[in-house]
Write a structure and sequence with these properties.
Order of helices and strands: H
Strand content: under 5%
Largest sheet: none
Radius of gyration: 11 Å
Shape: globular
Number of strands: 0
């Protein structure tokens, strides 16, 4: 099982759009059996 959570330390213009884009990309990568970006351990 893999747990994916975003870690955001600040709030800037465009942050929500960038977060949604990264989450969508990571879901696609995991579906293709690729490691997600910014993986920890």
């Amino acid at each position: 099982m893999m747990l994916m959570i975003p870690h955001i330390s600040g709030w800037t213009d465009g942050m929500l759009k960038a977060r949604a884009r990264m989450i969508a990309e990571n879901i696609s990568r995991v579906a293709r059996a690729e490691p997600p970006h910014n993986r920890i351990a």
